[in-house]
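Appendix B. One record, verbatim.
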Amino acid sequence: MANAFFSDLLATISERGRTLLRRGDAAETKHDADGLLELCDALLSGRGEASGTAMAREVLDIYGELDAAGRRAFFEGLVRDFGPDRERLSKAIETWRAAPSDEDASSLHFASEPRRQELIRRLNRAPGGTGDLVNMRADLLGMMNGHTDLAALDRDVSHLLSSWFNRGFLVLRRIDWSTPANILEKIIRYEAVHEISDWDDLRRRIDPVDRRCYAFFHPAMVDEPLIFVEVALTETIPGAIQPLLAVDRQHLPIERARTAVFYSISNTQRGLGGISFGSFLIKQVVEELRRELPKLDTFVTLSPVPGFMAWVKQDKDLPLSDEDREVLRRLDDPRWFESPETAALLRAVLEPLAAHYFLKARTPKGKLIDSVARFHLGNGARLERINWLGDLSPKGMRESAGVMVNYLYRLDDIEKNHEAYANDGEVVASSAVKKLLKGEGRRLLDMRLS
């Protein structure tokens, strides 16, 4: 109710400001990039609260009417014409060089701030402004696509969004069948890991006693989940996703649950890319679950490996023999996993290759290739287990040949694991995963086949 009251208040102020603008401005603003930039300049010139709020809303409304070319021209104008005040910055630099002091350093800091940062702050005052700015950054990211001409603008926008979406402002809410339908619909739409096919499928994921779903919200975007996690409560660590999502599965009595499985984490707002909420979400959900269910003692993921097959197919510097490469040709048959013999041969090659992928393979910049691995290992998890044929969905087979992994969040080790990964790039892994890398897992499989 407080949020609704505040939104109504802002809308009233904005509407009164629009009235003032209509009375004071004879000519209408041109609804193109040049006209929008002129309006932004006027917004920065300093007006009253009501008219400024209305003008900010008008800027965002006109932006929404622009086509892709107009939006790019607008972004280019912000880079070109809304940088720091160069004269003011030059004077601040001269003052600092003449007699450096803390006060002069502060003046230099504020003088170096681009005008577009203050513009973005003023746009954020408009009713619904925060959500519109998040969507605007999504447009910006789409237009950058490796180009650097808009990078300065993106740094300014992401800097402010990082402050506004600080963990202290986020609200954790449980998503269940009593959650408003408009939010549930967005959970269906935004699910990025394991597609939710319909409302019945959603209900199976959030309504049973052994299922949970949690999301972070922001007070300025009360009906927009920013990120959400789906949780299965189980007795042991699972190795496959299909049994967790099965239509006819048996629900686990809650008193028997000992393991919380984070099987899907989805970011929902592309415009908040690079602003991480996931680590906070997992840690807070763990706290919530431990309070509700003190007998839970294992917290683990069942995670996809989205980059694995792309890495295998690039076929450069892979630790493979000619015989191994011949075996990999069997992947060309989309139903290969239905043949026990073929599946066993491919397992002997792909499991050690998956261990190498996680423990040894790196990008040219020295980072782990897999984005999911970077996320969980950076949070302090341990690579616990590689699961053969853990995901038989078309997406899972296409991206990882069905391979899934468990990352274990052992609360006593999270900080130590995080430091090892952050400082030394060390992947903390179980002995079972390390044995696969050494080839022991393959030798054991060969023995079983012979």
